[in-house]
Amino acid sequence: MKTLLKSVAALAAASFIAGAGLAPATAQAETIKIALAETPSDEMAAFFVALDRAKANGLDYEWTAFSDEELAIQAVLSGQMDIGFGTPYSAMQRSRAPIRIIFQLSKLKFFPVTTKTYDKLEDLDGEPILLHSRGGGTDAIANVIEERLGIKFGKRSYVPGSSNRVAALLGGQADATIIDLSNTNKLMRGPAADRFNVLDLFDVDASDEALFANLDWIQNNAEDVQTFVDALVSVYRDMAEDPTVIRRETDPDGPIGRLPPELIGNLDGYYADAVKGGLYSMDGGGRRAAKADLEWYSAAGQLDGDPASLNIDDFWYFAPLDAAAE
Questions:
Q1: Global confidence as pTM
Q2: What dihedral angle (degrees, nearest 10) is formed by the CA atoms of 255, 256, 257, 263?
């Protein structure tokens, strides 16, 4: 399995590097290897600004874009990668590896969007739905919708990236999906808005994306981890004060800077909407996010046991965030 994962990762990395015109990074002993759960997009601009700040403070890193969250999680579990994107609660509970979350990148601020065929969530009983990834945040939302409303979705198909799922809606390839705040706003402010409905959904404050790593690795690389977390906290705090900081600090020669001009031109609007909509915890989530996650992912069927009986320290490692707060 480990060999297979390495092969998959190599193919994924080569595919993205070739597509982006990048030269492969030269591996170094001190280099932190980061497993992204999808290719870089405007939704990840704040993360890359934080990487640039961390690099300026001595952090050496390289990243690989995996095709979905499950591959990113497995790459960290296998020791192939150091830090991953995702919410690996099920894997943390099943695995013997001491995987811990160190930072909440974003909350589950997602919305069910459908064609005019449907007016409420109950109308989706037995209907197919398009989601981000198996076991990921939108999959969890779908599970909780089923549990709370007593319905059962039809076939679940998986397409990473909210913008790609919007394209599927616009192209008539899907009638129902769950997408993020920014893409919901763009769709419903656009010329095709009259073709779609945004269905009412209960509030969710749990993590959509988080950074996680093996606890042994975190403790053995405490200085680098602290540099990384400090940079993330600084970016999130600055972004809360002025969302335009993300566009202004985005490297034009970096992976975000090479995105299509229309995406770069909308960074200010994206982050203004995201901050206003409560997508980010400016303190990295911490214990508040950990408790919300245990409740949510238990209800979503990705954690076993009563959430009140689960210990947040078995899933999160708070020392870097505590130090950043000081």
A1: 0.80
A2: 140
